[in-house]
Amino acid sequence: MSEEPESPSPVQPDNKEYLVQRPFRVKLRGSVLVLLRLPNKRSLRGAFHQLSISGGVIHLEKPLDEKLVVELIFHLREKTIHSKAQMLFPMWATQGWMQPFRFVDLPDASRQLLDAGLKAFIGAEAKAASSGA
Q1: Distance CA 110, CA 120 (A)
Q2: What is the pLDDT of residue 4?
């Protein structure tokens, strides 16, 4: 009996990790401002560098503690979105800090608004780029 070398097993289509796709991300480069309400009720301002329906990256003057849960309030198109987010490990940027975050309790209605707003933002950017503006 000869044994054939074991080949890596293929990813099974019924594997949940295989089926879950990473949400698309939009690079906003500071064009959308965000208010961060801290647990002690103080507020900070920042600007989104990147945003998706699962989280994003905020440009801040000073970093926040990792794992801190804050409330994010921002406008996307004509809608206002409120959600809690957990701050992740900050990264130094040339002017300030880039701090990733993930949404922790984004309601379905807000998730749909955010998804539609991000898709509209992409559409407006593509239209402006194609018209040479």
Answers
A1: 15
A2: 43
Contacts of 132 (CB under 8 A, 6+ apart): none
Q: Is the dihedral of CA 46, 117, 103, 40 positive or negative?
A: positive
Instruction: Decide: 100 and 93 in contact? Cβ < 8 Å.
Output: no
- Residue 129 clears pLDDT 90, i.e. is over it: no
Q: Map out the domains of the chain as residue ranges.
A: 24-126
- CATH for 24-126? 2.40.10.220
8 Å CB contact between 33 and 74: yes
For residue 6, the tally of other CB atoms under 10 A from its CB is 6
Q: How confident is the model at residue 78 (pLDDT cuts 50, 70, 90)?
A: confident
Q: Where are the alpha helices (DSSP H) in 10-107?
A: 16-19
Amino acid 19: pLDDT: 54
Structure tokens at 29: 């480069």
User: Which amino acid, one-letter code, is at 1?
Assistant: M
* CA 28/CA 40 separation, integer angstroms: 28
What is this structure's pTM? 0.78
76 pairs with which residues across the strands? Answer: 79
